[in-house]
Write a structure and sequence with these properties.
45% helix, four-stranded mixed β-sheet, 27% strand, alpha+beta, 247 residues, rod-shaped, single chain, four-stranded antiparallel β-sheet
Length: 247
């Protein structure tokens, strides 16, 4: 029989090499991984920037607290009441006179905050410690309680012919005020005044820091306060220096 034009079978197309597909997928996966890494690095950088910008700054908070303290001008965190008992004598023309004065009075212990400068406030980031150096404690007074003053004795005959009684009164009042200040200046009383002032200033600095989420230790000392010989050198930077470097 004649050939009816049967077309011979065509060969099947060769399958794509599996190696090329694997290489493409590997390259695509590598690109995706690199993109993810770049994205993560970008997010990390943005997070650090935002955290740095929004995180509370201890030096700025301390500077604001310092400004608030200076506006008070003087701080009095401690006061005490004392009683002076003094006696004056005077002799003239063979006569003598004597008077005793009991003088109550109070003395306030103050710190002149106008003398407190930015260099007296130091921040140590390594130990999270804020150090404050205050001016010395000053005595204000005495404020004599005139209604409670008591006098005993008199000028006697001498007061009749001279001004002895007036002189005795003036001498007693001067001596009474001197005695009140002497009692107020005792080391134990100065120590109590420093401790009260120290606590007040520590709270003035610590509370704003704590409110901002900064856990810091506040140490307050006085310019005329004895320093232990084994205390290490102060290597912290003053708030003034830190803020100046940022400008």
């Amino acid at each position: 029989m004649a050939d009816r034009g049967v077309t011979p079978d065509q060969p099947a197309p060769a399958p794509a090499p599996r190696g090329n597909i694997g290489t493409f997928l590997a390259k695509a996966g590598g690109v995706i991984v690199l993109l993810l890494l770049a994205l993560l690095l970008g997010l990390w950088g943005v997070q650090r920037y935002v955290t740095k910008r929004l995180a509370p700054d201890p030096t700025s908070i301390a500077a604001a607290s310092l400004a608030g303290l200076r506006e008070q001008n003087r701080m009095s965190a401690f006061a005490a009441r004392y009683v002076a008992v003094v006696t004056s004598r005077q002799s003239q023309l063979g006569f003598s006179a004597q008077k005793t004065l009991i003088m109550p009075g109070s003395v306030r212990y103050e710190v002149d905050l106008a003398k407190l400068g930015a260099r007296d406030v130091r921040w140590d980031a390594a130990s999270n410690t804020l150090s404050v150096r205050l001016p010395p404690v000053e005595l204000d007074g005495p404020q004599v309680d005139l209604a409670a003053i008591r006098e005993y004795g008199s000028g006697g005959v001498l007061a009749t012919f001279t001004d002895a009684e007036k002189q005795l009164d003036e001498a007693n009042r001067r001596a009474g005020q001197t005695e009140l200040l002497r009692q107020a200046s005792q080391p134990a009383m100065i120590r109590l005044a420093r401790d009260a002032t120290r606590r007040a200033v520590e709270n003035n600095f610590a509370l704003p820091l704590r409110a901002a989420g900064v856990e810091a230790k506040v140490q307050v000392a006085f310019a005329d306060e004895p320093v232990a010989s084994d205390e290490r050198w102060d290597v912290s930077r003053s708030v003034e220096d830190v803020l100046a470097n940022r400008r």
